[in-house]
Design a protein that fits this description.
heterodimer, A: alpha+beta, Butyryl-Coa Dehydrogenase, subunit A, domain 1, Butyryl-CoA Dehydrogenase, subunit A, domain 2, Butyryl-CoA Dehydrogenase, subunit A, domain 3, 3 domains, eight-stranded mixed beta sheet, globular, B: alpha+beta, four-stranded antiparallel beta sheet, three-stranded mixed beta sheet, 7 strands
Chain lengths: 371, 411
């Protein structure tokens, strides 16, 4: 048993943090926030790919670093800390992972090396309207290798080069890879709570597509794809939540009220302690998820749901209470509190919200019970 | 990160299982706090001695004190396996988890030689005499006095009262925090002693608890004479000694037991849902709640295992161990309320079958309330996390520089 990063992984994590503090200071995230025409920071995206992070968990034979998923988790945590304004989650946690796990050899050869080189921006086009996802709600259709339907919102759908789209084929849910350069696809940017991450409404009209996996396997595949991504999302959430606690802490040590620093009052101390407890529990669940992800353990579904739920709860709480600790100044555009408030919700919703994951968790526990 | 046993750990687990199969007494229901009998204590002692002889009683202790110098992970593995047989016992917990580690850290060589092994073998049971009616969260405000006898013997005479002492009535020895100098500020006037619980002048009275039980005691001292050699640490250094004990307390009290999410899930499957729609387990609102209980329980278990990794890498147990009790005690309470709510009006009926799920939640109902106070209240633990982990400023301490005798005293 070993419940922590190894020395090598810690070393990598420190390298990643050093790199990001140089290349992704908060000004980089703010540029994307302030400029409504900017969907992401291209220079950061490029340098992240040059560092090999987009291919860190991709085997060497497909152009990756062939390291492993714990290393990817370490990177995710650091990206979460700095609110990185790049399509890393859509591309790496979802698209690359899906191709790696379920792509044919031809699909892997065509896509994985390009992902590792940073030439592909991926996205997952699943949602078609308000409410949690469900197979029976999918209306997009595939017939004769052509996809038609509307997907909204699709995180990074406005900038993606490739998409994985859920659609029915012969009445059965399936996953389809779409080259987004096809002229039949129209994209409409939708405004989002977190403008540092963009999203779009995608309209497909007879767009060429390629099935991922076998016919009728769609729900099984998407289920695993969501589980795997949930753990990586959880690491971003843990990174963001820890950053919120640090920020709240240092503000509480600087700000004076009633003749002493506000960090000396129990109302603030206990709030920070609550944040710490939630963050630590979320970190533990994320670590367990990382192990399940990396080792292909059969505990993956329950581990993923727990990591997802704890991560969402910790980051949302930390973002809210960090802003609260700052008082009035926390509600100004100039302070970074709202960047976390926004990103916490973005991460909490983009891969399915709490009600969806809680239900998934209990269903998993029930199955485990009967088996 | 690896959540499987390593080959060495798997081998150790296998070895433990074989030993338990060959040596464990037949399984019996766990004895609740305050329900110990002469027979249950005798059985616990016999089992403790057998574990000690095989080197399993305190695995991480050095061999010279009867341990085997094992890893914290091995200790957890043994406890897990022992727990599966329902053999985890609590009557030695305070001694081996808190009092004896204090003696081993601060005590004299003679004390170590005298006390460690008998405690390890379960021959002598220890209790902790810190809390007082006017010194709960503020333990350093202890008023129980010890003054030098005026006969030149160097002995000490103790007068006062301790409270919330678990197992005082069946304990052989206790660790006693007393005030030896009221003329200096409170932290500086305390001294620690060990005491034989059979010493004349000690009167032990059970507390009638809110749950109706009596597992805790009041302990009165009237002219109780102690030898100076019973002192643990220097005169006036009692607070520092107490901190050693309290740090160990959080590690051992951290593991709160009781009916958990699994029991609630099983119970809900057998209880009808609102308006007769299926079972409570099929109710969406319940499922959302249950998910959060599961996530908190798992998070806690994994957090404990993480601190174990830190320990095995050479770190010392830190105040972050406070998380365990803080979350678990509240969870006990929440689970009980959730279970009652699902039982609806039937939830008011006391289930007298102590083995039933419902009675488990009824124990949680009271013990959740108790555990949020025992071993450091929720509020004190949050202060500890804020001050020692997050390095926030200490609370304003108006009593810090004032002689103890001049402090205002309320109830």
């Amino acid at each position: 048993m070993n419940f922590d990063y190894s020395d090598d992984q810690n070393y990598l994590k420190e390298e990643v943090r050093r790199f990001l503090s140089a290349r992704c200071p908060i000004a980089v995230t703010r540029r994307v926030l302030d400029d409504t025409d900017l969907a992401y920071d291209e220079a950061l995206w490029k340098s992240v790919a040059e560092m090999g992070w987009t291919g860190v968990a991709i085997p060497e034979k497909w152009g990756g670093a062939g390291m492993g998923h714990i290393e990817l988790c370490a990177i995710a945590e650091e990206l979460g800390r700095v609110i990185a304004p790049i399509p890393f989650a859509s591309t790496v946690y979802i698209f690359a992972e899906a191709v790696l796990a379920f792509g044919s050899d031809a699909q892997r050869e065509a896509l994985l090396p390009a992902i590792a080189r940073g030439e592909i921006i991926g996205c997952l086009a699943d949602s078609e309207g308000p409410g949690a996802r469900a197979a029976q709600r999918i209306e997009a259709r595939v017939a004769g290798g052509k996809l038609s339907g509307i997907k909204i919102p699709v995180t990074d759908g406005d900038i993606a080069t490739h998409a994985i789209v859920t659609a029915l084929e012969d009445g059965q849910p399936g996953l389809f890879i779409v080259d987004m350069s096809d002229a039949s696809i129209s994209r409409q940017v939708v405004p989002t709570l977190d403008p540092t991450r963009s999203a779009a409404r995608l309209t497909f009209v007879d767009a060429p597509c390629e099935r991922l996996g076998q016919i009728g396997e769609g729900e099984r595949l998407i289920s695993t794809i969501l589980d795997r991504a949930a753990i990586l999302f959880a690491f971003e959430q843990v990174g963001g939540a820890d950053r919120c606690l640090e920020t709240a802490k240092s503000y509480a040590l600087e700000r004076h009220a009633f003749g002493r620093v506000i960090g000396g009052y129990q109302a603030i101390k206990h709030k920070l302690a609550d944040m710490f407890v939630k963050n630590e529990l979320a970190r533990s669940s994320a670590y367990y998820g990382a192990w399940a992800l990396n080792s292909g353990a059969q505990e993956l579904p329950a581990a993923a749901a727990a990591a997802r739920i704890a991560g969402t709860q910790a980051y949302d709480f930390a973002a809210k209470e960090s802003l609260q600790t700052h008082g009035g100044i926390g509600f100004t555009w100039e302070m970074d509190c709202h960047l976390h408030l926004r990103r916490a919700r973005q991460l909490a919703l983009a891969l399915g919200g709490l009600p969806f994951w809680r239900e998934r968790l209990i269903s998993t526990l029930e199955c485990r019970n009967t088996n | 990160m690896d959540f499987n046993d390593s080959p060495e750990e798997a081998a150790f687990r296998a070895q433990v299982r074989v030993w338990l199969t060959e040596n464990a007494p037949s399984t019996r229901a766990a004895i609740a706090h305050g329900r110990e009998s002469e027979e249950s204590i005798a059985a616990d002692k016999e089992w403790q001695a057998r574990k000690a002889d095989a080197g399993y009683a305190c695995i991480t202790w050095p061999t010279e004190w009867g341990g085997v110098g094992g890893t914290p992970t091995q200790d957890i593995i043994f406890r897990e396996e022992e727990e599966k047989l329902g053999l985890g016992s609590s009557i030695f917990g305070l001694g081996l988890g808190m009092c004896i580690p204090t003696i081993m850290t601060v005590g004299s060589d003679a004390d170590k030689q005298r006390f460690v092994r008998p405690a390890l073998r379960g021959e002598e049971i220890w209790c902790q005499l810190f809390s007082e009616p006017s010194a709960g969260s503020d333990v350093a405000a202890s008023r129980t006095r010890a003054v030098r006898a005026d006969d030149g013997s160097g002995d000490w005479i103790v007068d006062g009262q301790k409270v919330w002492t678990s197992g005082a009535h069946f304990s052989d020895f206790g660790l006693l925090l007393v005030r030896t100098d009221p003329d200096v500020p409170k932290h500086k006037g305390l001294t620690m002693f060990w005491i034989d619980m059979k010493t004349p002048g000690i009167d032990i009275r059970p507390i009638h608890q809110a749950d109706g039980g009596s597992g805790f005691n009041e302990v009165y001292f009237e002219g109780v004479r102690l030898k100076d050699s019973q002192r643990v640490g220097d005169v006036g250094r009692g607070w520092n000694v107490a901190l050693v004990t309290l740090m160990n307390e959080r590690l051992s009290v951290g593991a709160v037991r009781g009916a958990a999410w699994r029991t609630l899930m099983d119970l809900a499957a057998d209880v009808p849902g609102v308006e007769g729609r299926g079972s409570a387990l099929q109710d969406g609102g319940f499922r959302q709640q249950l998910a959060d209980y599961y996530v908190a329980a798992e998070g806690l278990k994994l957090t404990r295992l993480r601190s174990l990794t830190a320990l095995s890498r050479g770190a010392t147990p830190g105040p972050e161990a406070a998380i365990g009790k803080l979350v678990a005690a509240r969870q006990m309470q929440d689970l009980a309320y959730e279970a009652f709510d699902r039982l609806d009006s039937y939830g008011i009926i006391v289930d007298e079958d102590s083995a039933s799920a419902i009675s488990g939640f009824q124990r949680n109902f009271f013990w959740g309330a108790a555990m949020r106070i025992a071993g450091g209240t929720d509020e004190i633990l949050k202060n500890i996390i804020a001050e020692r982990v997050l390095e926030m400023p200490l609370d304003i301490r108006v009593d810090r520089d004032i002689p103890f005798k001049d402090l205002p005293k309320g109830v």
